[in-house]
Amino acid sequence: MAEETKQAETKTEEVPQEPVNADIQGMVSQFEATLDEYMVKKAPFHIPANGKEFLVKVSPYVVLVFALLTVPVIIAGLGLTALLSPFAMMGGYYHFGVLGLISGLLSLVALVVELTAVKGLFNRTHAAWRLMYYASLIAFASNIISFNIVGGIIGSVIGWYILFQVKALYKN
């Protein structure tokens, strides 16, 4: 009987599972390839070379300026969410506070990722471009969570178009 138990234990070995992180990276890479296909290769029009060069030169400065303008807005938004959540709950909007808080925190994370990319944007590294891509995905998720679906889609498509048009100018 002991031998049967040992045989049963050896037959039920656990199958190693891939980490969730690998699945997410695969989906992000696949989405990047899809965006590259439609925003660059199949795009109905392309930004001229001098326009791309201008965008790459001014983008670090634009990120810095908008970061300075965005920080107070995010902090105020988080504060208003905390202030108005109890009143929204009394009115029947039970998820207002949680979704607002998650959306605000995602916006803050996107801002930090963008600021992390600034030095690389000055040096035109591909890693900085990738950070800006990740920030755009986080910002899109934030828009969807806050039910700004139409604005999130329109803003993301425009941002991804510009981002993928200038991708070739960022080297490793």
Short description:
This protein has helices spanning 2-11, 20-41, 49-90, 96-123, 126-145, 149-165. It is an all-alpha fold and 172 residues long.
Description:
- This protein is mainly α.
- It has one domain (49-169).
- 81% of the residues lie in helices and 0% in strands.
- It is built from six helices and no strands.
- It has helices at residues 2-11, 20-41, 49-90, 96-123, 126-145, 149-165.
- Helix 2 packs across helix 6 and helix 3 runs antiparallel to helix 4.
- The longest helix has 42 residues, at 49-90.
- It is globular, with a radius of gyration of 22 Å.
Helix amount: over 70%
Q: Tally the helices.
A: 6
Number of strands: 0
Report how far apart the termini are. Answer: 62 Å
> What count of structural domains?
1
Largest sheet: none
Rg over C-alpha atoms, rounded to the nearest angstrom: 22 Å
Mean pLDDT: 86
Shape: globular
Order of helices and strands: HHHHHH
Strand content: under 5%
Low-confidence stretches: none
The chain-level structural class is mainly alpha
SSE arrangement:
Blueprint: H1 2-11, H2 20-41, H3 49-90, H4 96-123, H5 126-145, H6 149-165
Helix pairs in contact: 2-6, 3-4, 4-5, 5-6
What descriptors fit this protein?
172 residues; mainly alpha; 81% helix
